[in-house]
Design brief:
Blueprint lengths: L2 H13 L5 E6 L3 E8 L2 E9 L6 H16 L8 E6 L7 E3 L6 E3 H7 L4 E6 H8 L8 E3 L9 E7 L3 E9 L2 E6 L12 H10 L8 H4 L5 H12 L8 H10 L3 H25 L4 E4 L4 H4 L1 H4 L3 H6 L5 H5 L3 E4 L4 H14 L1
Parallel strand pairs: 1-4, 4-7, 9-12, 12-13
Antiparallel strand pairs: 1-2, 2-3, 5-6, 8-13, 9-10, 10-11
């Protein structure tokens, strides 16, 4: 083959559309699957983690349904990226807040994949930040500036934390387990609150109170401190009664939740130097709607003593698109392909 034909063949491969890829965002409660083509995600389906034995069963069910929907236009994916709600090290994956335990290599083998990227779920969400559009965000004032260093925290079933930094080669995600960092009180009430929780939990992490599994713990502590007897309630019920104003303890729990979250978010911003913006993800805060923006979140975000002016210049925004992490997973595949 002549050099000219070789170059033509290379160009044809470069011009060819990338094959579809499977992407997933797997949390403690739900697993979302999507079909990614050239970085764009479509055909998203959600399954409850508790209804499936593991990611292979869930992915096969999704792909079988997609094959029936697309017909001849469907081809089995050869590449996939799964964003999972746990710390990753080695081949074994153990989701902290669900009963899914699996081998990455075995999942790849059973699904017949040439490539399976495994990312922390907030690593994937962080990768999505620079590409988020105004329609996917609700900001406290100006929108974040996707430049430099960005941070994201998200109360869902657990509490995720990650960053993403702009480099000469593109955006690089910084995964971590910041949700398990110790939670710091800011006033006497919060000090008493954490002291109460420490009677049962020796280590009070941010996730212990600022998450779906933590909201009932926070509610019980608030009820004890204000001397108001209250039954043990699920997170969904606490949010419902708090927003409606039907229950004083639930309402105060939401206020304390937002304030603590603001203080924690400010600490993350300082730790990472996230001057481009701090984003709030996860499934809890979007349910609070305007209650979140009317809360003490922003005031507590900025309340860092001598560094308050530093925090005042950092924009904060709620991610309203619950599928953003799938876009980050698709980007991870594209970056790997490049």
């Amino acid at each position: 083959m002549t050099s000219e034909r070789i170059e033509m063949a290379k160009q044809q491969r470069m011009d060819a559309s990338p094959p579809p890829c499977l992407v997933a965002d797997i949390g403690g409660s739900n697993a979302r699957f999507g079909w990614a083509v050239a970085g764009r995600v479509s055909h998203v389906r959600t399954v409850a983690v508790a209804t499936c034995g593991g990611p292979v069963e869930a992915a096969q069910a999704y792909l079988d349904g997609l094959a029936a929907e697309l017909g001849p236009g469907f081809s089995w994916p050869r590449r996939a990226a799964f964003a999972v709600a746990t710390a990753l090290a080695g081949d074994e994956v153990d989701l902290i807040n669900s009963n899914w335990r699996f081998s990455r290599s075995e999942v790849q083998r059973q699904l017949g994949l040439d490539l399976l990227l495994m990312l922390n779920d907030f690593e994937a969400l962080a990768l999505s930040l620079p590409g988020l559009q105004p329609s996917q965000l609700h900001a406290h004032g100006p929108l974040p500036n996707p430049a430099g260093m960005l941070a994201v925290i998200g109360p869902g079933t657990g509490l995720g934390v990650a960053g993403v930094v702009q480099t000469a080669q593109g955006w690089l995600a910084l995964p971590g387990e910041g949700g398990h960092a110790s939670l710091a009180p800011t006033d006497d009430f919060e000090s008493a609150l954490l002291a109460h929780v420490r009677r049962e939990h020796a280590h009070v992490s941010a996730e212990r109170l600022l998450s779906g599994i933590g909201l009932p713990v926070l509610h019980g502590a608030v009820a004890a401190l204000i001397g108001h007897a209250s039954p043990c309630l699920a997170s969904e019920r606490i949010v419902e009664l708090g927003l409606s104003g039907a229950d004083k303890t639930c309402s105060q729990t939401l206020d304390v939740f937002c304030a603590l979250l603001g203080g924690f978010a400010g600490s993350v911003a300082l730790t990472l130097g996230a001057r481009g913006g701090v984003y709030i993800g996860g499934g809890i805060v979007p349910r609070l709607a305007n209650r979140f923006f009317e809360s003490d979140f922003r005031q507590r975000f900025e309340a860092k003593g001598r560094l308050s002016p530093y925090l005042q210049s950092i924009p904060t925004a709620l991610i309203t698109d619950t599928l953003a992490a799938l876009g980050g997973a698709a980007l991870a595949i594209d970056q790997h392909r490049a």
